[in-house]
Amino acid sequence: MARTLPTLLSTEVVKTVTMPFHVIEIGWSPTSRLSTGATVAWNGYTWTGGVATLDDLRALPGGALEGTLSLANTDDAVGATVLAADLAETPVTIWALYGAGPFTSGDALQVFTGVLDGADLSVTRVSLGLVSAGRRRLTGPRLYCQPPTCNHMPPPGTRIVWGGDVFILNADEPYQTPYGPTPAVRARRGPPPKLPKVSR
């Protein structure tokens, strides 16, 4: 079946040497729209250049894709976003653009759709694994007992009577999870409860 290429792409593919750049949409909050080339306007959005590198995007048996996306992390903003995100649920879409623009919505070729698959953080860069949505690898536990998932943790100072003893829950050092710190709770024995006097 014949396919009609956009005019801009038709001009580029017949050249002896042509090199696309990529625009990348990462669906964490807020959504990041990045370009591996210069900052560019496409499809109604501005795609920020100079911060992203698509290091490797390869096909696997069965047609799935894997790759690595590298982002600048000089101000720790990307690193903080990565630590707060559920990577296995973060969608990523990548398109290839050829030429210098201006671009229309039909000028891009979608080359990847999937999710993030792990991250390596350094002082200056964040490397994000990419995997096709059908091949994503899930890790556990994927939910941690902390707000907003769990909003009914007993507050510090709660007294629990158990087996003739009274345990008082106190706030301790926070426990660090991939989603940020959550208050830890430790129990210590308190004085035995005073039984009410019963008059007859």
Draw up the topology in text.
Blueprint (H helix, E strand, L loop, with lengths): L6 H7 L7 E6 L5 E4 L4 E3 L2 E3 L4 E8 L5 E8 L4 H8 L6 E7 L11 E13 L3 E8 L26 E4 L2 E7 L3 E3 L2 E3 L2 E6 L10
Antiparallel strand pairs: 1-2, 1-7, 3-4, 5-6, 6-9, 7-8, 8-9, 10-11, 11-14, 12-13
Features:
Pnp Oxidase, Chain A; 2 helices; mainly beta; 200 residues
Could you characterize the architecture of this molecule?
The chain has 200 residues and is mostly beta strands. Helices cover 8% and strands 42% of the residues. It has a seven-stranded antiparallel sheet. A three-stranded antiparallel sheet has the order 10-11-14, with no helix packed on it. It is elongated, with a radius of gyration of 26 Å. The chain starts with 6 loop residues before the first helix and ends in a 10-residue tail after the last strand. Mean pLDDT is 76; it is low at 175-179 and 182-190.
The CATH architecture of the largest domain is: Roll
Q: What can be said about the biggest beta sheet?
A: 7 strands, antiparallel
**Secondary-structure content class:** mainly beta
**Straight-line distance between termini:** 96 Å
Helical content band: under 10%
Pick out the low-confidence regions: 175-179, 182-190
Total number of helices: 2
- CATH fold-level assignment of the largest domain: Pnp Oxidase, Chain A
CATH class of the largest domain, anyone?
Mainly Beta
Spatial arrangement of strands, main beta sheet: 2-1-7-8-9-6-5
- What is the 3D form? elongated
Strand content: 35-45%
Q: Give the overall pLDDT as a whole number.
A: 76
Question: What's the count of strands?
Answer: 14
Question: In sequence order, what are the helices and strands, one letter per element?
Answer: HEEEEEEHEEEEEEEE
What is the count of structural domains? 2
